[in-house]
Write a structure and sequence with these properties.
two-stranded antiparallel ribbon, globular, 27% strand, 4 helices, 10 strands
Length: 184
């Protein structure tokens, strides 16, 4: 069931869909046994004092490596059926770019996918920053699909996750099979 930030704010400005991923993981022991827990975005936004009216809906609670084509179709269907013009989608980082591209043309909506490289429950996580950044990005970007991670915004068709460097990179980093020249 959707949750609104305040009953007196009736105009929904941001729809948030959660899918799971590292941002919501709960680890049980040192051997990395985990489950995807409850979405953390509601608590993060409440703790940050975010006042823009939003609603949160959980679509699934999965590691992004476990998402299927059917899951991506479900995500896309909810995004395309949503009346709200600004949508944030929390997602695991391993296949975030694949889901972003699978959304296709979203019409007059601005869709921002966001996640974290460490769980929101961990000290020193990037989750809080990334979520706050996504809230700002979804309100200021033109219609389209974007990935917002670690202070950078990328168009869905022009981003990849560099697993070795554990970061997201724009198209210039991997076009033509080489990294751009770095100048002093």
């Amino acid at each position: 069931m959707p949750w609104r930030v305040a009953a007196d704010q009736t105009t929904l400005q941001i729809q948030i869909f959660t899918t799971g991923g590292t941002i919501d993981k709960v680890y049980f022991d040192a051997r990395s046994e985990y489950e995807v827990g409850d979405p953390q975005i509601t608590e993060i936004l409440r703790d940050a004092g975010v006042t823009v009216p939003y609603a949160v809906e959980t679509l699934m609670r999965k590691d992004s490596l476990d998402l299927t084509d059917e899951d991506r179709a479900t995500i896309a269907a909810r995004v395309h059926a949503c009346d709200c013009p600004r949508i944030i989608l929390t997602h695991g980082t391993d296949t975030m770019t694949e889901t972003a591209r699978s959304l296709g043309d979203v019409g007059d909506r601005t869709v921002v996918l966001v996640g974290s490289l460490s769980p929101a429950r961990f000290k020193g996580t990037d989750a809080e920053f990334n979520i706050g950044f996504a809230v700002a990005a979804v309100q200021t970007l033109p219609p389209g699909v974007y990935v917002a991670m670690n202070g950078r915004v990328f168009e869905a068709a022009k981003v990849r996750k560099n697993r070795e460097a554990n970061r997201f990179e724009g198209a210039a980093y991997y076009q033509a099979g080489s990294a751009p020249e770095v100048r002093p």
